[in-house]
């Protein structure tokens, strides 16, 4: 008779609020164990059975549950079948702040005016004092919140995710956090994911005071276009020479005045712990595969720029 009184499912509907994060590549069993550990569901095996019977697929992201839910209700949260009872939105890595706020507004129903006001008062969310807004600190990912969750609580969750990742990488000083997010946002915009570490390494090499090759200039097209308020792969020589653009890393030495988008976890990790290399130049030569070529000298770099130009000629309209 031992174990006959084991609870395999709660009666529901449950109470309170528990947020569970599903990492990329996580399986139903691992999620079930997490749910049991947080008293969301009663038994991992019966939960997995219910999940598989629904034919659902796991998506990475943060999910909000109640404690002591019915297995069927908890499964519905994971497969987003209870969409009418949750606020859902997804933020891609690299989005600029207004793009992120628009996605949050659309998914949550919270007015843009309210979100914009919170964005202009970043200090309340624990970001570095240097931050004039929340650019760079809204963590990409899929999010689900209970209906009625306040705008401030939603924003805080996204910011905390970014700050926790910085701390996990050993970046605890606020000033260093701001610089790391700034570099990570450039890495996110400039390189293919497999090359993030080397792009970060090259940026740090360019910032070294004894570097005479590039004289402390990062020379990132992505920072310039951000400052211009547009998205483009091509810049004029006049735009590159414009020192009044505070994000112009061709004309102004050092980092731009702030992040240029929301970096994902991989880009943050690369900026916190860059690959040690001797590179000073990089160029993505294929915008589809994100293949990136690195070099130590301008002459070598120019040969890769020719490969990029050749790709652009073969793919009309892509490099605008």
TrEMBL record:
Any GO molecular function: lytic endotransglycosylase activity
InterPro entries: MLTG-like
Enzyme Commission number(s) of this protein: 4.2.2.29
Gene this protein is translated from: mltG
Annotated keywords: Cell membrane, Cell wall biogenesis/degradation, Lyase, Membrane, Transmembrane, Transmembrane helix
GO cellular component, one term: plasma membrane
Major enzyme class: lyase
The reaction(s) this protein catalyses: a peptidoglycan chain = a peptidoglycan chain with N-acetyl-1,6-anhydromuramyl-[peptide] at the reducing end + a peptidoglycan chain with N-acetylglucosamine at the non-reducing end
Site note Important for catalytic activity, residues: 190
Family named by the database record: Belongs to the transglycosylase MltG family.
Function summary: Functions as a peptidoglycan terminase that cleaves nascent peptidoglycan strands endolytically to terminate their elongation.
UniProt-recorded name of the protein: Endolytic murein transglycosylase
GO biological process, one term: peptidoglycan biosynthetic process
